[in-house]
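Hi V.,

You were right to ask for the full record rather than a summary. Here it is.
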Amino acid sequence: MHVSYEVPRLSVSGTALAAADVDLIIIPIAQDYAAAVASRDEGPLGDDLKSALERGEFGAKANEIYVARMPATGWTASRIVFVGGGPRAEINVERVRRMAISAAQVARSQRRARVGWADVEPGVISPAARIETVAESFVLANFDNGIHKSRDGHQFFIKDAVIFTSGDVAAAVTNGGAMGESINAARVLINEPGNYLTPRVLAEKAASLSSVPGLTAQILDEKQIEAMKMGLLLGVARGSIEPPRILVLKYLPAGAPANQTLGLVGKGITFDTGGLSLKPADGMERMKDDMAGGASVVAAMRSIALQQLPIRAIAVVPMTENMPGGKATKPGDIHTGASGLTVEINNTDAEGRLILGDGLWYARQLGATHLIDVATLTGAIVVGLGKITTGLFGTPQPWVDHIRVAADRAGEKVWQLPLFDDYKEQLKSEIADMLNSPGRPAGSITAAMFLKEFAGTGPWAHLDIAGTAWAEESKPWQPKGATGAMIRTLIEVARGGLP
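Predicted structure:
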């Protein structure tokens, strides 16, 4: 039976590399130190590396792989793999993650069950951050997105991953493993097709994923949603035979500051046809990933609880399909949110901001003092920032800066866009408090401005992951499909405390 991923046994060892009892050892090398590394080893392995460098077969460029031509004489491991890091000054968290995953994939392709990482290249990050990232990367590398294939041969996963280093880094390894496992769990959900992952199924699976010490889960059904007068969520759900759901997670550890609570809100559209404002058929199949924000929020909460971070946190994930059924919302309809604000629906394909509006309001009611919402919200952000960078919006500036710095620590790229009051003019409606979709100009900004109206007072930020939640093509460090974007950033925000 195919499974999506397997968490290898992660451990640390101070054993000399030559005596390491593993099947394959990965040795990272900075580009500007490669020649020196080759010269230090006067044996066959050093000669092999030196020859590869001289021939131009290996240049230690970022993520470049060189498999030693023969087993290293005198080494216990049967295979040595070198992975390039590019210039040492560029070897940050993101680079280490890509290096480790790329090399681990080589180990999987060679069916090496016991793999080691030589912590011999410092880069520009702390030892704890480096070790945590390597541990996370071995878990991420043990991922298979082809679980629904019936004729795909035999899966192979790394069983043991040993990090050869000195010092007390056990906590870093544990945290890295927990983070990798949480990200993989989110990727599984995001990859699932809409017929397998309905709102009810997503709610149940997400609640099950949240079954860790200190984290509680509650699922609200359509009757409870209606009782709270969440007309925006119910309006989107009207067209589907699948009833909506809201998942509420709470992590309230003893001793955490009682006057601050991080609130995470994630978009949970399990499939988005666009409703009556129907999307083009080309590419619609990818709209199963429109719940990526919700999955990311759940994964982050799971990891926050597993790491026992000293911070109060809650999550709200509204879930529904957006379908063109007989009862579907029509362009021109008006819906009223739980906050009391009325919205003229001029585009039913701008549904994510509607369900998030009710979700943000509810998170404030539950006591969130600092809000972050995560959503595959707009095509406009992809036009502006491509598939590489997540759009960041928010207020006040110190809260936005806190998130931006956390993203940098996590090795994820974000870019802040403006929320000038002038943009609010585009949201004006003649017959309601606001429009849900004011048109193409500044589309990602006006979507954020819409959300801001429901975020209440206090710090709020919006992360638009429409471009970064899904990889359109495979890379050595990332298979095609769900990426788990912003999960690490949310965890780093929690680690850094609330300003």
